[in-house]
Amino acid sequence: MTAQQTDISTTEFLSNLNDECAALRAFVVLLEDEQRCLLGQRTEELLPLAEAKVQLTNKIAALAEARQRFLPPGTNDMAGWLKRNVPQGLTAWQETRQLATQVYRLNQTNGELIQIKLRYNQQALGVLYGAAQGTAGLYGADGQPNQPSASRMLGSV
Question: What is the C-alpha to C-alpha distance for residues 61 and 67, in angstroms, rounded to an integer?
């Protein structure tokens, strides 16, 4: 491999690493937007955010795969490899790692918020279903009101 080929490979590697870092930054913003929707009452915005998450996840995965192709087989210590071979990429790698940790935490939190909303909705549906069952026999076959015997009349003591 010539020095020029090495320079091109290094430039491509750094460009790829910077793209991966930028994609992770965008993912953090996306997850923060998702969290604001979950905490507020803007659930109609969640579907477009989910679609954007899938697209960005695919992009990040492709960038990570491309990064791996630059590395020699069996490279487990990315920071150590960078220090020895491409020291100018170490800062971007450290930021990439920090962003990946932030993405993980935000995603965990958002998942918990989704579970809370899901439980709340299930409880609300249970109450509505129970109320619907209680009023299902409100009228008899003759069309006359059929009051449940276990309840009291409105306004009575």
Answer: 10
